[in-house]
Design goal:
alpha/beta; single chain
């Protein structure tokens, strides 16, 4: 197969999210997604409505650390419409994770709206591994703030960044 033909058949997907911080559930979706897609563009959302713990640059850096050995991933911060971001980055598929039935209604509405905005964009829903089906970034932050163990919930690099972020603010966390 020529390089041109390979490029034409190359399948790139966008996996958007706030990733504040990235969890092992997100990592699971990305790694499993790479078995289906040639490249995954991890799109770190800059949402002015949310007050993230980590800046967009910190989240991008954290994810780059986690996937440093994975050459077929690219991590970029973005704001604005997802369909415009996908089009600009030559991706026609959006990956979304579904943890529970409660996620489905929102994700279904978003997929339909994205399809309305750009009929060329497809949404690919993935369920996380059963061991991560309960996991969310919000839950990780709460567990950390209450002094709980994050083993098996986030990559080691993320736990280290959390410790660094809170070392001056919460000395009682045994950091």
């Amino acid at each position: 197969m020529s390089e041109t033909t390979h490029r034409q058949k190359s399948r790139k997907a966008v996996y958007p999210g706030s990733f504040d911080p990235i969890t092992n559930g997100h990592v699971d979706i990305i790694k499993r997604g790479l078995k289906i897609f040639d490249r995954i563009l991890v799109a770190v959302l800059q949402n002015p409505k949310k007050e993230p713990l980590f800046t967009a640059d910190e989240r991008v850096s954290m994810i780059q650390d986690v996937f440093a050995e994975q050459k077929n991933t690219e991590i970029i911060a973005f704001h604005g419409l997802l369909v415009e971001f996908a089009k600009k980055n030559d991706a026609r598929v959006v990956i979304r994770g579904l943890r529970a039935i409660s996620d489905f209604e929102y994700e279904f509405q978003m997929a339909l709206m994205n399809m309305k905005l750009d009929p060329e964009i497809e949404t690919f829903f993935m369920m996380p591994n059963l061991s991560y089906s309960f996991l969310s970034s919000k839950m990780v932050k709460e567990i950390f703030m209450l002094g709980g163990c994050l083993k098996d919930l986030v990559p080691e690099q993320v736990e280290n960044r959390l410790r660094e972020k809170f070392k001056d603010k919460h000395p009682s966390l045994n950091l």
